[in-house]
Each structure stands twice: as structure tokens, then as C-alpha cells.
Please model this.
Amino acid sequence: MPRIKIETCTGAAISPLLSELARLRVEVFRAFPYLYDGNPAYEEDYLRIYAETPGAAVIVARDEKRIVGASTCLPLSSQPGVLQKPFLAARIDISKIFYFGESVLEAAYRGRGIGVAFFRAREEQAGGFETTAFCAVQRPDDHPLRPKNYVDLHEFWRHRGYHARPELLCTMAWQDVGEAESTEKTLQFWTKTL
Ligand SMILES: CC(C)(COP(=O)(O)OP(=O)(O)OC[C@H]1O[C@@H](n2cnc3c(N)ncnc32)[C@H](O)[C@@H]1OP(=O)(O)O)[C@@H](O)C(=O)NCCC(=O)NCCS
Model:
């Protein structure tokens, strides 16, 4: 496989990436545990926050010119209330928290260090913050769509220095693949003190 180039994009450089990021999100998040039945046009609109927020960054992985993976980050204070709420309830100062959005990588490119590079590049953007944080969906162990050989990312995240925070939970609603309407899911935060 050719060498994959990792690049950090900020400000105006993010806008031209949004349609490719939307494609990747919809493709990667269709799989367990997200099972997200997404729409690229909606996704592109949602991702605009990264182009418009000071301090935000998108890390892209390219194979030649083609984007094969991406990862996002921005100050938690610029995120919707649903993500801030658990921190506010726990009396944690959200101005000190740098939030990691999605990491999405085409399956053919996994297991060769790109996910590790995404964490490193996002932490480099977190200067001035005390903590980095992200959240991940929780699915029951007996979920009917859990693949038999599924391995969750908990060890991968622990190896990057992150701790599960069972007291920091939020709720989001989306339509799962194969379902007729959107349902609420619980997501748990993971944090790292820088
Ligand atoms: C999360 C995701 C981006 C991880 O990407 P990845 O590139 O496969 O991860 P990496 O290869 O960097 O790391 C996986 C492991 O392989 C190791 N590894 C394998 N090959 C490697 C190489 N050539 N160089 C360095 N590390 C390597 C890493 O060290 C790591 O092991 P560790 O945790 O024991 O240190 C990818 O699995 C993905 O897109 N998943 C679906 C979407 C998702 O769940 N996203 C997260 C929530 S938004």
C-alpha cells in the first residue's frame, strides 16, 4: 500500500473538504455500533460547524489525492448543549475542554497507525485546554446486529491515555439502519487530562 499522508486543516481550508467528509461519515457510521442511516446532504450541513468555529480542525488522511479518513476536533464550548450538559451537571468547566468529534477511516486502511495519528494530531490542536474528550455510543452486548467478531475500541482508546467516564453520559437520536424511525441512544464520554 502507498504511504498515507496525514494533514491538519483549519479555517477556510475545511470548507472544500465537507462533501468528502460527509460521504465518509455516512459510509463508516452505517456499521455497528453506530448503525447510522445517514444522509450526505444533512451531514455536510452538520459538518459546517468545523469550518466556522475558531479553534476547530479537521485531520484528513489521503491516499494520493483521495480522502480515505478524517477526524475532527473543536472547543466543547462551541458544541450543542446536548454535549455540554453532562459536564455542566458535573460542575466541570467546559471552557477547559477540547472536544473530539468523529474519526472515520475506510475499512481497507485500518490497522496501520492512522487512528493513532488522528489522536496525536488532534491533541496537538488542544493547546491551552486542560482536557480532551469524546463520546461513543453504547450498545447492549446482545444487540442483534453486533458482528460475531466485533472488537470494540476501548483498549485502543485506553492505549491513547483515555478513561471511560460512566458518570458523563449524553443522549442523541438517529435512525438506525433497517429501522423506520429515529430512536434515542446513550453515548458515554471518555476523557484525558493533558
Ligand atoms: C477508529 C479508527 C479510525 C481507528 O483507526 P485505525 O487506523 O485502524 O487504528 P490504528 O491502526 O491507528 O490503531 C489500531 C491499533 O493498531 C496498531 N497498529 C497497527 N498497525 C500499526 C502501524 N503500522 N503503525 C502504528 N500502529 C499500528 C496501533 O498501535 C493500535 O494498537 P494499540 O491500541 O494497541 O496501540 C477506525 O477503526 C474506524 O474508522 N472505525 C470505525 C469508526 C469508529 O468507530 N470511529 C470511532 C468513533 S467516532
Q: What stands out?
A: The chain has five helices and seven strands.
